[in-house]
TrEMBL record:
Pfam families documented for this protein: ADH_N_2, ADH_zinc_N
Entry superkingdom: Bacteria
Name of this protein: Enoyl reductase (ER) domain-containing protein
Organism: Actinacidiphila alni
Cell cycle in keyword set: no
Length: 350
């Protein structure tokens, strides 16, 4: 394992207030920048068991749409109401820490109090980064669910044809690469953007991209995979899941890690994604369909981090992401992400 990321801490004088992004009003349909506001909040000195962290980067993830819509039944995160500060994965530097906190000034940590430039974080909710990944920002990658799904629920076998829906998203842009490294013979992805399709094949090793929004998706999939698919890593659901059922080979394995077709629908609140699929074909083809929940596989995160770090250092995988500078731009990033304007993960550098 690599040496810790922390070095001799540089003295810093914390400000008396921090900037944070709050919900200004409940979104009507899909969120727009005006639903959020950047405000200043007092930044007291850390109390017992607290770390003062200067955030360097935080992740913008589409699941916030569900939290804003309030349909959080079964979701292990609280809803977001007007006046609440947004949250999510972040990395940053510890500036102040009490004795015995498990972290010290200068350490780089990961925590869930993103969407602000400074954060007071309970020490037991911070992970000190140990340098397993060569760049701290890579700790915000959303590859753990894809890796877990492709090794636990729908294990990739040598020569498999794998379809990844939503291939240009934070999960999908890593999933195709992971499938290849696990032995897939052919990797297909879906996207609704021609420029994203070009990047998927030119940069991330996808063999073909199935376009969305150009006629029936099932027809386009049949053209790209005339012999069918063995594995589905699905982040979308809806029409694309239904088409994958039609393309399934005997004994195909489906792993569902997202349902963006419903989650990001303007006429829904983010907590449902109905899909009509051919259950008869599931039966006669012996297709397994399983949803991936990280909490069911607690060992995956550490395993993924080790393999991800080794693959990054060997140049065998890329971490596709778009970095947006300035917390003042943060209210625009979630609507942009939902609109499909970013490739890979969307990260704010406050």
């Amino acid at each position: 394992m690599s040496a810790p990321l922390s070095a001799a801490p540089a003295p810093q004088t914390p400000p008396r207030s921090a900037r944070e992004v709050r919900v200004a009003r409940a979104p009507r349909g899909l969120p727009v920048p005006g639903d959020f506001t950047v405000e200043r909040a007092p930044l007291p000195a850390p109390g017992p068991g607290q770390l003062l962290v200067r955030n360097s980067h935080f992740l913008v993830f589409p699941g916030l749409r569900t939290l804003l819509g309030g349909e959080t039944d079964g979701v292990p995160l609280p809803p977001l109401r007007a006046g609440d500060t947004l949250f999510g994965p972040a990395v940053g530097e510890v500036v102040a820490a009490p004795d015995g906190a498990g972290a010290r000034p200068g350490d780089t940590v990961r925590h869930l109090l993103g969407w602000r430039d400074w954060a007071l974080v309970p020490a037991d909710q911070c992970e000190v980064l140990d340098g397993t990944l060569p760049d701290p920002v890579a700790y915000l990658a959303q590859g753990s669910s894809a890796y877990g799904a492709l090794t636990r629920l729908a294990p990739v076998r040598p020569g498999d044809t794998v379809l990844v829906t939503g291939a240009a998203g934070a999960v999908g842009s890593l999933a195709g690469q992971i499938a290849r490294l696990l032995g897939a013979g052919r990797v297909l992805g879906s996207t609704g953007s021609p420029w994203k399709a070009e990047r998927l094949t030119a940069e991330l090793g996808y063999d073909a991209v199935v376009p969305r929004g150009q006629g029936r998706f099932a027809d386009r999939l049949a053209e790209a995979a005339p012999d069918g698919i063995d594995v589905l890593l699905d982040t979308v659901g809806g029409e694309q899941l239904a088409a994958a059922v039609g393309a399934a080979r005997q004994g195909a394995r489906f792993a569902l890690v997202g349902a963006l077709s419903g989650q990001l629908a303007a006429d829904r609140a983010g907590g449902s994604a109905p899909a009509a699929i051919d259950s008869y074909r599931l039966v006669v083809k012996g297709v397994s369909v399983r949803g991936y929940a990280g909490g069911d596989h607690p060992e995956v995160e550490a395993e993924w981090t080790e393999r991800f770090g080794a693959w990054l250092r060997a140049g065998e995988i890329r971490f596709p992401h778009t970095t947006v500078g300035g917390i003042g731009r943060a209210p625009h990033v979630l609507p942009e992400l939902i609109a499909g304007r970013h490739f890979g993960a969307a990260i704010v550098e406050p």
